[in-house]
Amino acid sequence: INRINTDLANGLGNLVSRTVAMIEKYFGGALPTEREGGDFDDDLKAIATSLKEKVDGYVENTQLNLALEEIFKLVSRANKYIDETTPWILGKDDSKKARLATVLYNLLESIRIASTLLSVFMPTTMPKVFLQIGAVEYAKYEDSDKFGVLPLDVKVNRGEAIFPRIDVDKEIEALNAIIKNNEPS
């Protein structure tokens, strides 16, 4: 439960939700094509584009837990990138729209790469991510080591939370009820 809440709900789910919400808020759901690079971009891109090779190596050696750890390093790095680039501040300044579009595009690409690699582990869930980030036709495994696959004017589609948080106390209560009902009389 803690892993689901930490990695999926707080990590990937929150990243998808925040990114899509910002694109809707600042650009009406579709990014403009003008771009402006900045600090932290290259580091995020390097982590994203080197991920496939690492994950493939771990999967080849049936070290699936390490493959998942690598993928979630990118998710963590993308969440940190949000804090570093402060898109909520960029969004208040019209002269920073190109920079904001770059930040949000870089987040979408990072999500696309992480979700494409995660689709091997969660084949029914990741298409929901692809739909929200406008990557349905761009989520190809062979492109998961490339940055810049999504069209510059990508459109997002906000949906329901992909990984809702699990209430630990409620789950423990339900498990205790099951145990109690299965005890011999």
Key features of this structure:
185 residues, mainly alpha
Beta fraction of the residues? under 5%
Number of strands: 0
Order of helices and strands: HHHHHHH
Give the helix/strand class.
mainly alpha
Largest sheet report: none
Shape: globular
What is the residue-averaged pLDDT? 88
Low-confidence stretches: 1-6
Number of helices: 7
| C-alpha Rg (nearest Å) | 18 Å
**Share of helix among residues?**
55-70%
Instruction: Calculate the terminal CA-CA distance, rounded to whole Å.
Output: 30 Å
Structure description:
By secondary structure, the protein is an all-alpha fold. The chain is built from seven helices and no strands. Helix 2 (41-60) packs antiparallel against helix 3 and helix 2 runs parallel beside helix 5. The longest helix has 26 residues, at 2-27. The chain starts with a helix and ends with a helix. The model is unreliable at 1-6 (pLDDT under 50).
